[in-house]
Amino acid sequence: MAPTPPEHGPKVWNPDGDSRAAALARALKIDCIEQREAAGCYLFYDDGQLVIGRGDGRREKPMAVDFAAQWQQRQPGREMLLKAIGGRRPGLSVLDATAGLGRDSLLLASYGAEVTLCERHPVVAALLKDGLERAKSDSSVAEIATRMRILEGEWPSATVKDKPFDLIYLDPMFPESKKSAQVKKAMQIFHDLVGPDDDSDSLLPAALAEARHRVVVKRPARAPWLAGMPPQFAVTGKALRFDVYPIKAMPPK
User: Any idea which positions bind S-adenosyl-L-methionine (predicted)?
Assistant: First the structure.
């Protein structure tokens, strides 16, 4: 089931009577307010971006989905994900079933894949939609953005069934590390908003039943296999690994 917003979940902060903010609050069925308090979590528009942030009493920087910034901050040469998906195959259809903030979806689309970003949390989906619309007008990522689309809802029920995906990509929320129980401040809002992925083990069997060629799962390097199912092989780095579950030979490049 899709996660239910917490009782004291985010509100839309709209001090200037912005029609976009009012429409967003109606679409998300959450309160729209003119004044925010020190406590709480708020969606608002800042310099043309939809952002989510705390009240005045918290120091975290409000967070937006900014694909242009993600592209600038990428680390060229670290092509673990590219190896895991089997190399560049223009037109490869990929479902990112746990899209989150869309960072890996952007990389997948940069490799030439046609990427569907499925996000079940309505607030995160709204941030993704706003980020993708802005990306289409930014010359640094506009061409990549043409290969990305947002699909809001619970996967697999939200998946378009008439065209199976070549590859399904899973990146469930990482299990909490004993060495670093507190996530980076930049991500704390996101983690508090979506909560843990308690149903993540159910994703892999569903993906294996639906993908045409391959399933790839992103995990911490020392984390157990998702659903306890060993992959055929993995692409492993110091902090991360990509577990690969081939189904049949990938389409030609």
Answer: 103-104, 119-120, 171
